[in-house]
Design a protein that fits this description.
CATH class: Mainly Beta
CATH superfamily: Electron Transport, Fmn-binding Protein, Chain A
CATH topology: Pnp Oxidase, Chain A
Strand content: 35-45%
Number of helices: 4
Distance between the termini: 28 Å
Radius of gyration: 17 Å
Bound molecules: flavin mononucleotide
Shape: globular
Number of domains: 1
């Protein structure tokens, strides 16, 4: 039996992969924020999209610099992920506040977050207003990842514990991995 439910639509999308988006402001100062409304949108050219609330400092930074890095954190830095997602760059240096480390990127001025497992460096090619958020579409211009996360040349998710958001203060990570060819 189906029942009509009063769950906010965004809460229906769970679990969701969590990213840390790093960017720079007009003065070149780095910022980092937690985002889950992230997805890949094209293979060729390689495009991803992130949805950023218009009040976020990240919104200000990406609107002016037209670039960002999508870093994928692991469960061991969940505390820092929550801090980056509950405080704002409008109030001060969030790298300092979270203890996360900005490191130089290959192809953009925005830094990577050292403690993350993978990094997608992006240049914004398009933006679309969507309600109270802006969807930034970024072309991936460089990709980096920890050596341990790679097996036979591809990302092996079982080697890292990606952060998946369940809603509110709840998170999980990847458990059993099923190969559909073996069902
Ligand atoms: C788990 C989690 C997921 C979040 N996802 C998003 C998101 O997809 N888009 C967004 O605009 N804000 C999201 N936020 C909220 C921002 O991270 C938060 O408003 C942060 O303070 C913004 O920082 P900034 O002002 O330095 O950019 C999320 C927060 C948490 C804790």
């Amino acid at each position: 039996m189906k029942i009509e439910c009063d769950v906010r639509p965004n809460r229906m999308f769970a679990p969701q992969l969590v990213g840390l988006v790093s960017s720079i402001d007009k003065k070149g100062r780095p910022n980092v924020a937690t985002l889950t409304w992230i997805t890949t949108v094209s293979v060729d050219p390689p495009l991803i999209s992130i949805s950023v609330g218009r009040t976020r400092y990240t919104h200000e930074c990406i609107s002016s610099s037209k670039e960002f890095v999508l870093n994928l954190p692991t469960m061991d830095i969940l505390k820092e992920v929550m801090l980056a997602g509950s405080s704002s760059g409008w109030e001060g240096d969030k790298f300092e506040k979270t203890g996360l480390t900005p490191v130089e990127s290959i192809a953009v001025k925005a830094p990577c977050v050292k403690q993350c497992a993978t990094h997608l460096e992006c240049k914004v090619i398009d933006m679309k207003e969507a309600g109270d958020h802006t969807i930034f579409i970024g072309k991936v211009v460089a990709t980096m990842c920890n050596l341990e996360a790679i097996k036979d040349g591809v990302l092996d998710i079982s080697r890292i514990k990606p952060v998946l958001h369940l809603g509110g203060t709840f998170f999980t990570t990847v458990g059993e991995i099923v190969d559909s060819r073996e069902i």
